[in-house]
Amino acid sequence: MALGQALKWGLVRRNDCDIADAPRDVPLGVEAKEKVRHLTDGQACHYFRATADHRWHNYYVAAVQTAPR
Question: Residue 63: exposed, middle, or buried by beta-carbon count in 10 A (0-12, 13-18, 19+)?
């Protein structure tokens, strides 16, 4: 909705969401070929401790907490 409004106001030249493909629906009970695996709480804590002194530690924390694809 925000990009549509920005398009109406002339703030953007086009709405790129209009040309993007929507995610596919997977029927219940159908196993995907490749499953997404998430870190457990213990694994995440271990990862945070291991990267505590790294200069990009805050980015690692944000990546784990927001789970970008």
Answer: exposed
DSSP string over 3-63: HHHHHHHTSSS--GGGTSPPPPP--TTPPPSS------HHHHHHHHHHTTTSTTHHHHHHH
Asked if 54 and 60 touch (Cβ cutoff 8 Å), the reply is yes
Q: How many residues does the chain have?
A: 69
Give which of 45, 49, 36 is closest to 65, Cα–Cα: 45
pLDDT at 37: 74
3-state secondary structure at position 69 = coil
Residue whose pair of structure tokens reads 């409004």 in the numeric block: 5
What's the pTM value of the predicted model, to 2 decimals?
A: 0.46
